[in-house]
Amino acid sequence: xxxxxxxxxxFLIFLATVALVIALMLVMMNWSFKRGFVDYLNQxxxxxxxxxxxxxxxxxxxxxxxxxxxxxxxxxxxxxxxxDAEPPAHMPPHREAGFGDRFNNPSWPPPRxxxxxxxxxxxxxxxxxxxxxxxxxxxxSLELGPRLxxxxxxxxxxxxxxxxxxxxxxxPLHNDWQLIGWLSIEPVSTPSQSRDLAFVQQQANNLYIxxxxxxxxxxxxxxxLARRLLQPISALTAGARSLTQGNxxxxxxxxxxxxLGQLAEDFNILSNTLAANESARRRxxxxxxxxxxxxxxxxxxxxxxxxxxxxxxxxxxxxSLHSEVGQLNKLVDDLYQxxxxxxxxxxxxxxxxxxxxxxxxxxxxxxxxxxNANIELKLxxxxxxxxxxxxxxxxxxxxHNLLENTLRYTDSGGSMEISxxxxxxxxxxxxxxxxxxxxxxxxxxLFDPLYRTEASRNRARGGAGLGLAIVRNIVSAHQGEIDAxxxxxxxxxxxxxxxxATGATA
Length: 506
Fold this sequence. Notes:
By secondary structure, this protein is an alpha+beta fold. 51% of the residues lie in helices and 14% in strands. The protein is built from eleven helices and eleven strands. The protein has helices at 2-63, 67-71, 73-79, 101-104, 132-135, 194-244, 259-307, 315-343, 355-372, 392-409, 467-477, and strands spanning 148-152, 157-160, 170-175, 178-185, 351-354, 376-381, 387-390, 415-423, 426-434, 481-486, 490-499. The chain has a five-stranded mixed beta sheet with strand order 6-8-9-11-10, with helices on one face. β1 (148-152) and β2 (157-160) form a beta hairpin. The longest helix is centred in the first third of the chain and has 62 residues, at 2-63.
């Protein structure tokens, strides 16, 4: 159900987004087209004014004024008819060539040239009775005529619709290169002609069809994208469900390099980490059980021997029991210390100090034991101080575990060498001991809890294998690093690197 809901949500998100974009584009394109079309109509109207301008200029050339035109609206309507309107049909065939012939002759106006004579135009104010019907404007003259206005050279209104001039929509009129007036046209704000409205409607219908097709394509793409994006999510969901059931070896297929692919890789890493932790947990429980079982078995055997009278209850028997209890107590204490260091719960009080003093004091406390074990302890520290931000008690505990480890496993007659120096921004401490050594392949596991290099090693030679694990945690808490390599003395070389205190001075 969740998978289907998520797919449906993704589909709705994609579809709604695309639909919103298409709607906005449709509105903007429709607005832009109408505005552009209106501009086109206004520009087209201006191109149709050319013959009207020529008629008005010739009229003024014949009358030397606009007075008669202002008093005769019929003449104004005839002069402002469109170029494609039919000329008047009332002109008699016997009329001489004159101003009236300019409305009948398709080649009118004639070429402009100076003339010594001026023809007198017919009286349009009082035409013959047979001619009066021809003065009425044709239907086509309504396209431009009602929107035209005439102004004189002083911008005074003569005739037409507008009473004030709009310079942006005016065309100057000239006679012999002198300004005689202005012809103004009122711009259209919306298409009004039937053919224009039909064209606009057709374009709008085309936009609606295109939007519908785009929306359909968007719906199909949304379905594909939702399904494609949901596949890795479904795999992650199934993998997570498998992890909750304890199947830590679950792996999912990485199908890309994008964020989902990276998430799949992280999931596989998490699965491997959980599997490794689970394996370590089981091994840890088994090792702890084994370590606790051994001293408890020894204690039980000795107690039963005392109960059965096999061994006498004397100071020697009590000392043996006390030794076994001490071993058991040491094991429990080490486990407690290791658990605290793993959790980061050890109390660290770090201050800038010269850890050379800590190293010398700890080694001095072990010299007597090293002498008794016939192991030579050499200390080679640099003359310069080893300033570090450290907890002296934890550093001492770290060295104590390493020295104790050497005492347990180094053969008599051997040696241990501790050196320290500053290497750039780091402090390097090297600890070498003599034989026996550890195989190269086993060195990285020395710091694992409860790990012993020899499976047959008995408890008489050492502890439970927790000391080096605690050492590693202390070094990590000081933002340092620890590593184990074969030593030139024949044993193990442990290198500890700690950050140098930046504010320290010698």
